[in-house]
Amino acid sequence: MSVEVARAPEFINLCDCSLCRKSGGAWGYFTQAEVTISGVPTGYRRADADADEQFVEMHFCSACGTTTHWTLTENAEGDRVGVNVRIFDPAELEGVEVRTIDGLHWDGSAPPQHRRPPGAFGREIFL
């Protein structure tokens, strides 16, 4: 399978919540129309949350196991896809802002806090 995006992300989120840590994701955000998936990924929803509390479904390549992206479930509103930018050539991400956020302590009531000031990929931060 493959993932193509229409543009570079505006920024990359490095999150330390348990789902992001375990998936190994570094997330760039796109609308559904900006993401093209070729092939059939395997999906996963967290088993530790009630069905009505599952807001994202993780997707990974069934051939190699790489986490490729997440999509919103029927419990979430919006048009957003998180793509794991670690699957792309690092040269394509040069200069994109990287935000290291505190997802571990985030309760969803306000934007998550940053663990450190944002930096630029390739200069201050490497994935």
TrEMBL record:
Name by which UniProt lists this protein: Aldehyde-activating protein
Gene3D superfamilies hit by this protein: 2.170.150.70
Organism: Qipengyuania aquimaris
Domain CENP-V/GFA residues, every copy: 1-107
Hydrolase as UniProt keyword: no
MF (Gene Ontology): carbon-sulfur lyase activity; metal ion binding
Keywords: Metal-binding, Zinc
A Pfam family recorded for this sequence: GFA
Protein family: Belongs to the Gfa family.
